[in-house]
Every structure is written in C-alpha cells, then in structure tokens.
Amino acid sequence: MRDLSELGSFAAEAIKNDTVSFIAWQRDGSIITVNPPFYELTGQSQEQVEKELWPGKFTTQESKAHILAGMDDQDLGREARKQEVSIVRADGTLLPVELIINRYQPAGGPVPIYYAFITEIVERKRSIRELAEKEELFRALSETALAAVLLVQNNRVIYANPEAMEMVGYSSDDLKNIYYWDLIHPDFKDEIIKYGDLLLHGKSLPARFEIKFVRKDGEERWCDVSVGPVVYKGKMSGVITALDITERKKSDLALKESEEKFRVLSELSPMAIFMYQGTKLIYANLTATMFTGYSREEIVQKDFWEMVHPKYKDMVRQYGLARQRGEPVPAEYEIEYITKDGELRWAQFTAGQIEYLGKPAGIVTAIDTTERKHYEIALADAKAQAELYVDLMGHDINNMNQASLGFLEMATDKLLATGYLSEEDLQLITNAVDSLKSSSSLIDSVRKLQKEKRGGLAPVVIDVTRILGDVKSQFSAVPGRNININYSAQSHCKVRANELVRDVFVNLVGNAIKHSSGDLTINIFVKSVAEQGQLFCRIDIDDTGPGISDERKQAIFQRSVRDQSKLTGKGLGLYLVRTLVDDYKGRIWVEDRVPGDYSKGARFVVLLPAVADSATNN
After folding, report:
1. What is the dihedral of CA 247, 253, 255, 259, to 10 degrees?
2. How many CB atoms lie within 10 A of CB 601?
3. For 216-234, what is each residue's pLDDT tens digit?
4. Main-chain phi, psi angles of 384, to 5 degrees
C-alpha cells in the first residue's frame, strides 16, 4: 500500500489522525491505503488488510453487492454517495456502518480511485440521542472546549461556546440576530447555504471541510469545520465544530508556493537533481531520468548510492549518511555512475543538506562530465605517448645509436692503424650490431604499441596454451646458455585478445633469460581459475634468476623507471606487457618464486578473462 503522503501532506495528516475510518481502493478491489482507525474498526492487522481486496471479506455478501453497485453510480465523482452496510470484523461479529463513498479521477490517469469514510452507525445514533438527552452535559463540555462549537437551527445560531465567540468576534446576542452564513466569506457562502439545505434533508455529504470566514471586524480567516446533524428539542439541527487554522493555512500556502517554485526550477534545470532521506532517493527531476535512463518511479525505489560505480559506492554512502547527521563531508566530487542500460559514465556531483518534512535530507545536483573526462583521458594518454616517444628517441634510441657509432669508430681506428681486425677486435662489430638490433627492436615495439592504441588490431579468440608452446620452442635453445624450460597446461585456455598477446609472453620469458646469467630454469604453468563468478586463464612464469626486490616489484611495469641495473633493461619491455594485459581486461603482477626470499627468483602472474570453448571470432 502507498504511503498517505502521496495524497498531500495536509490531507494525509488529516485522514491519518482523524477518528473516522478511511479507505481508498481501485476498481479491481486493490487497497491503496487505509488510516489507523480502519484497523480498529475491522479488527484486522495491517498485514491482514494488505493481503485482502475491498470489499472482499470485510463485508457481508449483501453489503458487497451494495458497495459494488454504488461504485457504478453515474453521479459518483460529482457528489458522494451514502450507504449503510455491515462490516464483518475479524472475530466474526457484524458491525453496521455508514459509508460516505466517492470517486476520484486522477488527471491524465486511466484508472479511477474510489475512497470512503466509514462511520459506525450505532455510535453516531447513540451520540445524537445522548446529545439530545444530556444538553447540559453538552453545554458543560462545549464551554471548556478549545474548538469553536455552534448549534444551528432554522439557519440561526442558537448557541455558541466562548471559543466560537472569541474566534468570530461576535457576542452571543449578536449571533442570535444573524444567519449562520453571514459568518462565511462571500467566496464560500452560496456553497455553504446549499450544503446546509442538503444536510438537513438527509443527503450524505462530507462531514469535514475547510472554509474561509469573516470576523466582525472584517478580518478574513480560515477554519477547519466538522458538521453533523443533531435533534435538539425535537427539531433537526446542525452542530458545528471549528478550529482556526489561519496560521497553518498560511504556512501551507507558503510551503506550496515554495514547493511549486522548486518544482518549476527543478524541472527546467539542465542539471540532474536528486533528493534523498535516510538511505532512499525520494525525488528526481526530469533531467535525472534522462541522466540515468530510469523513470522517476524506478529512481525513488533505490538507495541513493545504488547507481554509483562499485569503486565509489562506499564513499558516497558514507558521505550521504554523514551529511544527514550534520557532519562535515566534501560537497563536491567527481565519480563514475552506471545507467540503466549498463553504460559507465562520469558526473560532477554537488551535495548539500536540507530539511524535508521535518527531517534532515540530502539534495544533490549532477552534471554529466563523461565527454570532458574522455577528452581529459585521451589528452593525458596522448601526452604520455608523446613524452614516451620523445623519451625513446632522445634517450634510448640515441644511446643505442651512440654506442653503435662508438664501437664502429673503435673498429675503424683499429683497421686504419693495423690494416686488419683481430678476432678480439671483431667483438666491436658484434657489439655495434647488437646495439642496432636493440634499437630496431625498440622501434618495432613502439610501432606495435601505436597500432594497439589506435585499435588497429581486432580482438579474436586465441588459444593461449598453443602460443606458450611456441614461446617455449623459441627460447629452448639459447647459444652459450643452459636454459631449461618446463611447460605444463592444466587445460586448453582461450582468451579474447589480438596477435600482440604473443609479445606478452615473449617479453616475460625473454627478460628472464636476458637479466640472468649461467644455468636457468623457467617454469610455465597454465590453469583455469574463477574469481567472483568469472572464469580466467592464469599463466604463471617463474625462473631461478636473481629475482626482484620488493621495492621494485611495482616500479618495473612503469616506463618512468630508469637506472643502470640489469632489471630495467632497454626499450618498452614490461611497460608494453602491462599495457597489452590492461587492454585485454586482465591483470599482471610479480611475486617471489620462493615466498619471502626474492633472491631465489621471480614469478610473473598473468590473469586474462577466459572465453568458452564454443566462442567464435565473430
């Protein structure tokens, strides 16, 4: 059942706190809402009521037919209909009641809403009889009441309690000389005269309403009026109780104007606007629905952090709850969020605290910054790439070329001095050639990296186990070295990647050989693993080389690292490896082959998302 607040704050409070039972339902009998007196009237709990249809088991079969027939009354909606029916209480007893039933057609809505005020007939008749028989008791009570009480007979005010005289500014004698409608504001007078005539003729009418009245001094004020028939001295009369609600009315009007201004500004705002209270979103403007892809109805069912990317959820939840407690938290932050169709986007959020319906709440405005963020990322990537290429050309390749020139110049000097090159001098030529090969290899790696970044290599389904077998064969025979490569695959493992995936493993195995000396054992192991419901191919490549210290384990994947140690190497190396693995949506890290002792060798672990054996290259 919906909360009564959907009917408006004043109406909801009035119905909720009234002693008269109230129920609203749809044509199919689905109960929209009831007020607390309804549970007492029927003897049913909230849980029991929520499971039933109206009138259903709440009435006798005869009463049910009577109510359903009344719902078809053509005049319903323009005027209320009064019915006398029997309520079947939870203990099986029958309770005669009077229903004041009406129909409401929401603007633009295809389904009408029916509602009724339910009054025990027995209690009302008893009240009228007791009122007639105990006039003195009524007078004693009314004299001390905080509400205005007037008794009207033949359109004249024949009794007014002190509160009534104080409220309207007339004396008792003044009131006896005027008609009751002379107290009513001209805007309501004709309606009230008609109402009084119909009430005295037994018509079923709303017993409670708000009207404007005019004091003797001309001041216009508002009152909440309840009207009921009573027999007084054998004649049908009307008893009126009224509360001055002028100040509350002013507050309601001011609040309504404020809410209307907020609504207009909010709906026209190009920024998404959300409101939340407690943990739940309670409002979203039109831009917010376009922002997220969800309807307003869907949004207000969510926790305020629900659409935030998982890596920001805890932060947003903690900020939002702390903000409602009045604790200082950042007012602006940029985070990723997830739209209804699963798209990841960026937004700049500005949040603040407000009070809504007497309780602290949060209000958030958001601007989509996805395009700007993409430009910033692209610009940062382009800058990094440009700096990388300048660095390579200005340092790595230049150093290699200078080394080659140096070796060649030394060989030339030897040749000019002696006319020949000894076997020992030929090493100068070999060194120059090796340096040029390294330069060429570096240029080739840059070319591959550029092609990868441009998306020039389409992803396909690749059998990693087959590639690793080729890599083993490639490095099994290294001149002048005793290299032992052990390769074991638990199962065939397929991933979605491109042709450069081979370079990942060539680099890892090649580095193990290049940065070690003497005998070397390399172990390659492949298996399938699951993490958080997703299947991965895990490739472990460990060696018995010099290992990698803890402080260098993260740095070795960064291009910015540069020193003279053997572990750094030349060119892109592990930077290319990490870039490729990231693009394949995988992870790579390095650990000790023997835990706790890095000097016993390193183990590189590559984790790539696996695809099913039935996957194709579409």
Report:
1. 180
2. 22
3. 999 999 999 998 888 877 7
4. -65, -40
